[in-house]
Amino acid sequence: MAKATTPSEISNPRRWRASWRFARLSPRKARLVIALVRGRRCNEAMNILRFNPMRPAVAIAKVLKSAMTNADEAEADMGRLFVAEARIDAGPTFPRWQPKDRGRAHPIIKKTSHIHIVLAEK
Q: Which parts of the chain fold into alpha helices (H)?
């Protein structure tokens, strides 16, 4: 299904992206943090992530900083940048086993995430 484009997207095709694939974070927990920065200006988003105590905030801040660096290298106006798209996709899981009593084993699922951030100018 095709995504409808707005006139502002047609006139401003400049977008910068960064991603971190196979990050050792739970997608469910990372989505709680990414929702805080979606649609905000980059400086405001970095401040939110800097003072957020959740563990995925550190990884998301690294990806956001990378996207900001990509935009800066392309000579974007850093004051006008905002988070146009931010999403967390689930990556592959690593099955592990925890030994239990009487020779049993319980599964432990190590989850991974793909972090994608796209910046644009307002």
A: 7-11, 27-37, 42-50, 56-73
AA letter at 70: N
Q: Please tell me the pTM assigned to this model.
A: 0.84
3-state helix, strand, coil in the chain (%, to 5): 40, 35, 25
- Blockwise average pLDDT, block size 10, the chain, 122 residues: 56 84 97 96 96 97 96 92 96 96 96 97 89
Per-residue pLDDT at 5: 56
Rg, C-alpha atoms of the chain = 18
- What type of residue sits at position 21? R
Fold type of domain 15-121: Ribosomal Protein L22; Chain A (3.90.470)
Write out the H or E segment, with its range, that includes residue 87: strand 81-90
